[in-house]
Design goal:
disordered N terminus, about 0% helix, six-stranded antiparallel beta sheet, about 750 residues, four-stranded antiparallel beta sheet, Methanol Dehydrogenase, Chain A, 2 helices, mainly beta
């Protein structure tokens, strides 16, 4: 492996690059339970709080707010609390429409990406970002958009066949007031610490600035080789194979072994899709694994949360997201939880995290166990899947947790960092935390104790009748706030503009199992005895809140702004002929690397189905949704002091609905809300949002919007080069407030900076 650190002088307008090596850049249901013992034994740590803030002043709440600094954006979510809030007020309702593009930084110059899902950071006069499928790190001049330095880790086969081969959501920043570091977790699962001023790896961190995150997990590290150069297949099929003795790399065919080592492919994959989070002097790192809608094998690497010393890169502690025998929660895996046991893989925490530096706690939103639609191989509630877990950032000790979905089979993994909120509830000031979810609910707790702020009720739900499946008898449902997404499908939800329309909508709806929340899947052969061969569930597999949405919090008013989707999905289970799983949504993995041998007499289908093919939204009648329009999805504002909903707006506007079908003749159809998940931040006076990569009104110009925080009334909109693809950010630099956001896909990825003239 080699490391490369390059300082680049870039003329953004024409993309000319002149490399100078190593040159310094210009300066500029289980409820909350208290833990009595750590889930795993902590190692010795010397964790220090910052001795000073930038500028040499002592750290106070005035100059180091929530791990941030005034006018800066040091975390993915703005601050350690994931507030997505800035007190800046140079950009207001009066001048928002005057915003202009200050510069455009072309990330695609450095290489392609699926789409650009990155939120940059601003600290001490520099912007920091990641780009390309290699997750290269760059420092950018905030005033001009010029690249100051660039770093890329050459990961060989580890990158070529990485399970999460994209830029990720951003880097991590740390300073003690003297030293500054930018930290990135790469697609090949390394962690690199760079000098923030120069981009040069920190020689005191790990081995020459690099920590191999695959080491120390209890799996063998072996030489890796690859046999093909085709497009990445996202599955749990081995991304590479073990190298043969004496095998060498062929640079012409790009096959063989190049000296790369990693976890033995027989054990599965591990990666990271989100940045680490800094909690004082501790780097807290999670992992992601395979996508739960592609798997072939019932065993894979489970999830971990680990803490590393920021100065040395030394691992201090590890917390198992699948509790091992003897650890708290192991009994919730009724067939056992030991590493390598069937069904325990992929219980990862792939989303972004939040932290309270003063309490020394980090808050982990955990995804769901393998497989998305079927869990017969993993009976039990499956802790810590679908949980919010509070860990002591110094030791890794579990302080409390709450599981929001028991034994998930709906793909309701927890997709977003929780918001830490200080609110006044029933006259008492509370340090709280609220988790937005795919389920369309906010789960809100005391962030010190884990006790719910408002009751969360274990509610009986419909049980699965799929052979081998055993769903949980109850699910935890919040009493407040009200949901922000459609809950299930009931007859009263169906359009009824005429009796004929109602009857047609009902006929379509009754083709699948209907009901309120947590409707279990059925098999495509109709094993339920009711004749239905599919199930409706809402929110669907895409949320509620998902990767591109989430919430922003105003600490001055206690208002929370949730960007979400609302809609149905269908699921119908059948046997994948080349998978180890008994059931999954319809797909055919035969012929993929690592797949089970096809059964006798197998005939390949004409086309192989993709990941979401069996979970698509099929709720349209002659081009019209069978659901009545409701104020759900879009952006919903809540007063978190009371839990009351205050207002709702669509994501960028309303869309006229028309149908030429005779069924709708003479009917004036109400408009529907624009789709997609808005990407929201909050300033002193505004809610600012972009519509997201698939949101807004079709064929409308891409715009950045501003609305009044108290009412939701639109107060500004400016044209932008293309739709936002990640959460924006804002900062103050040389007396100018900037708003910066990511756009584009492939080789058109870019950061766009807006400011007043």
């Amino acid at each position: 492996m080699t490391t490369r650190s390059v300082a680049l002088a870039v003329t953004v307008a024409i993309g000319a690059m002149v490399p100078v090596l190593f040159m310094a850049a210009p300066a500029a249901a289980q409820g909350p339970r208290a833990a009595s013992t750590p889930a795993s034994a902590p190692m010795t740590a010397a964790v220090r709080r910052p001795a000073s803030a930038p500028g040499g002043t002592a750290p106070t709440m005035a100059n180091l707010v929530r791990g941030n600094a005034p006018g800066e954006w040091r975390y993915w979510g703005g601050d350690a609390f994931s507030s997505r809030y800035s007190p800046l007020d140079q950009i207001t309702a009066r001048n928002f429409d005057s915003l202009q593009v200050a510069w455009k930084w072309n990330a695609g110059t450095f290489g392609p990406d699926e789409y650009y899902r990155t939120t940059p950071l601003y600290a001490n006069g520099r912007l920091f970002t990641v780009a390309t499928t290699r997750r290269s790190v760059m420092a950018i001049d905030p005033e001009t958009g010029e690249t100051l330095w660039m770093y890329r880790l050459d990961e060989g086969i580890r990158w070529q066949k990485a399970a999460r081969q994209f830029a990720g959501r951003g880097p991590t920043y740390w300073t003690d007031g003297v030293h500054e570091r930018v930290i990135v977790v790469t697609p090949g699962y390394h962690m690199v610490s760079l000098d923030a001023r120069t981009g040069v790896p920190d020689p005191k961190f790990g081995r020459n600035g690099v920590v191999d995150l695959m080491e120390g997990l209890g799996y063998p590290m072996v030489p890796l080789a690859v046999d093909d150069t085709g497009s990445l297949v996202i599955s749990d099929a081995a991304p590479a194979r073990r190298a043969k003795p004496g095998e060498r790399w062929n640079p012409v065919t790009r096959t063989g072994a190049d000296g790369t080592v990693g976890i033995d492919p027989v054990n599965g994959q591990i990666a990271a899709s989100s940045p680490a989070i800094m909690v004082n002097d501790m780097i807290v790192v999670g992992n992601s694994s395979i996508h739960g809608y592609y798997p072939i094998r019932v065993r894979n690497i489970p999830g971990f949360i680990r803490g590393f010393d920021v100065r040395t890169g030394r691992q201090v502690w590890k917390f198992n997201l699948v509790p091992q025998p003897g650890e708290f929660g192991a009994e919730t895996w009724e067939r056992g939880s030991k590493l390598g046991t069937e069904g325990v893989g992929k219980n990862d925490a792939w989303a972004t995290y939040s932290a309270d530096p003063d309490l020394g706690l980090v808050y982990i939103p955990v995804g769901m166990p393998l497989l998305d639609e079927y869990g017969g191989h993993r009976p039990g509630h499956n802790l810590f899947g679908n949980s919010l877990v509070a860990l002591d950032a110094r030791t890794g000790t579990r302080r409390w947790h709450f599981q929001m979905v028991h034994h998930d089979i709906w793909d309701y993994d927890t997709p977003m960092a929780p918001n830490l909120i200080d609110v006044t509830v029933n006259g008492a000031r509370r340090k709280a935390i609220t988790q937005s979810t795919k389920q369309g609910w906010l789960y809100t707790f005391d962030r010190v104790t884990g006790e719910p702020i408002w009751p969360i009720v274990e509610t009986p739900v419909l049980q699965s009748d799929v052979p081998g499946e055993r769903t949980a008898a109850t699910q935890p449902i919040p009493s407040r706030p009200a949901p922000y997404s459609q809950q299930g499908l009931l007859e009263r939800d169906l359009i009824d503009y005429t009796p004929a329309i109602r009857d047609s909508a009902l006929k379509l709806a009754q083709a699948c199992r209907m009901g309120p929340y947590f409707i279990p899947a059925v098999t495509s052969t109709g094993t339920s005895g009711s004749g239905v061969r599919c199930s409706w569930y809402a929110p669907g597999a895409s949320g509620g809140v998902n990767i591109d949405g989430g919430a922003a919090f105003d600490p001055e008013t206690g208002m929370l702004y949730v960007a979400s989707l609302s809609g149905l999905s269908t699921v119908s289970l059948q046997k994948d002929p080349c998978s180890e799983f008994r059931f999954s949504s319809p797909r055919d993995n035969c012929g993929l690397p690592g797949a089970v041998a096809p059964p006798p007499g197998y005939t390949p289908p004409e086309s192989r189905g993709g990941g979401f093919e069996g979970r698509a939204n099929a709720s349209m009648l002659a081009g019209v949704s069978i659901l009545k329009p409701k104020e759900l999805g879009g952006i919903t504002a809540y007063d978190m002091n009371s839990g009351d909903k205050r207002w709702w707006i669509s994501n960028g506007g309303m869309i006229p609905v028309r149908s030429t079908d005779p069924l709708f003749a003479g009917v004036t159809l109400p408009p529907r809300p624009a789709s997609g998940q808005a990407q929201v931040i909050v300033t002193k006076s505004l809610v600012i949002y972009g519509t997201g990569r698939s949101g807004g009104v079709p064929n409308a110009k891409p715009q950045l919007f501003a609305v009044d925080k108290a009412t939701g009334r639109q107060v500004g909109a400016v044209d932008i080069p293309s739709r936002t693809t990640a959460v924006p950010m804002t900062f103050m630099h040389k007396g100018k407030q900037y708003v910066v956001f990511a756009t584009g896909a492939g080789t058109t990825t870019a950061l766009v900076a807006m400011r007043l003239p």
